[in-house]
Model the fold of this input.
Amino acid sequence: MWGDEWEPHTATVGQPAVASSVTVVVPEAVRWILLAVCFRVVTDANVANRTPVLTVLDGSGVARARVAAGFATTASTTVDYTFANGLAEWDSAGTTIASGPGPVLPLQDGDSLVISVDGVQAGDQVSRVRVTALQRAVRAD
Done:
């Protein structure tokens, strides 16, 4: 579908600081076709709804896409979220898994993905971030 030059690629991120967003930058000299973004949200005991948001920024920091999870999480829970190509609507399995559609976009070096949590509380933690994409190297002519 994408040709022989495109190969599967998974980018991982170390554990970010508590109550902070996560940014994944497309590396230099490659292009990505975004397929899926997976991550875990562990919430503290503060009563509040938290909604994960995935924002795709171009190299100058302007949003190209912004999608919110279809399910919020509440106090003292652990939820694994997935934004993925091919999913038509948001589904959940109890209070532990939520998945739904994500943007399928071509990305170039310098573009970035930002995972943030609307309503984040002081002890909330995002972790286990994985970005799956088709990747190809950019060759100089």
In short: The domain at 7-137 is CATH 2.60.120 (Jelly Rolls).
